[in-house]
Amino acid sequence: MTEPRYDVIAIGNAVVDVIASCPEDLIDELQLNRGGMTLIDEARADELYDAMPPAREVSGGSAANTLAGLSTLGLQCAFIGQVAEDQLGKVFRHDMRATGIDFDTPARSGEPATGRVLIFVTPDGERTMNTFLGAGQFLPAAALDEDLIASAAILYLEGYLWDPEEPRSAMRRAIEVARRAGRKVAFTASESFVIERHGDDFRDLIERGMIDILFVNESELATLTGLDDFDAGFDAIAPKVPVLVATRSERGAVAHAHGTRAVVSAEPIDHVIDTTGAGDQFAAGFLSGYAKGMDLEECLKRGAIAAAEVISHYGPRPEADLKALIAEKL
């Protein structure tokens, strides 16, 4: 097996986040799924955008956010995702490359537009996401650079993108390529509703040993296993994947790998501003340690520190120097 060129390559949604603070009653007024993520069409996206208070726009997408954290931490990363030939597509490509991430997937001509996520943040820091996938849901297997995938130590896949047919097929092919090359496959479940729709697929991948590293939160774990008790659900999945990481918000996180279990508390912060990207940056912190062969507890601690940084400000990507922050706290 050749030495990998990249530490992590990810396949995910190429979207731009539009983030606004809002009062609690606006969530009910707009009939939003408070604290969750809802897929919407372009007409609904336009309606919600018109109803938003003043907002800021930043490139997002779960897997892309994770790569941004990893790149900040010094890892070599590449991204595969679909944008359109429009202004938001140019913004997204610029932001990825400016972060040090290789992103060369050709833009798609015609409709639909580049995807966007309209995020309403209530005073408690909870985010309610409304996602128009746009061009991202038309990522075809033909767009994959298989040599690129085979050149990365870890292939990281975003569960959100499993929903549309074309990128689902592309990710299945990418898994085959990565495993044939002897690389690791990491998968983030993304959201309970994705598991409700595609749980049979995910459970099949787990049973067949196609996932090496699985990231879930407490709610996703319950949906995946059908068990409300966290420990019971964790113990049901842990023997089936080499590395299982489960985050529990303010209760920290738990991981199991090769017979070892580790637990970490959430990193304390003064005030939660915006929880957008918390899970994405936890994965970045964890993988930054895992890719370098660090022990399980240190990987979890790195994840907790990265997650705490991102929820202390608006936006899903780090603003502080994560490398310096982790060095200071560990």
Report on the architecture of this protein.
By secondary structure, the protein is of the alpha/beta class. It has one domain (6-14, 61-110, 134-329): Ribokinase (UDP-N-acetylmuramoyl-L-alanine:D-glutamate ligase, 3-Layer(aba) Sandwich), CATH 3.40.1190.20. It contains 12 helices and 14 strands. The strands form 2 sheets. A 9-stranded mixed β-sheet has the order 6-5-1-9-10-11-12-13-14. The chain has a 5-stranded mixed β-sheet with strand order 3-8-7-2-4. The longest helix has 16 residues, at 165-180. It starts with 5 loop residues before the first strand and ends with a helix.
Number of helices: 12
CATH-assigned homologous superfamily: Ribokinase
Strand % is 15-25%
Shape: globular
Mean pLDDT value: 94
CATH class bucket: Alpha Beta
What share of the residues lie within helices?
A: 25-40%
H and E string = EEHEHEHEHEEEHEHEHEHHEEEHHH
Number of domains: 1
Give a brief description.
The chain has 12 helices and 14 strands. The protein has helices at residues 24-29, 42-51, 62-72, 87-98, 146-150, 165-180, 192-207, 218-225, 230-237, 278-290, 296-310, 322-329, and strands spanning 6-11, 15-21, 37-39, 56-60, 77-80, 102-103, 114-121, 127-134, 152-158, 184-188, 213-217, 243-247, 253-257, 260-264.
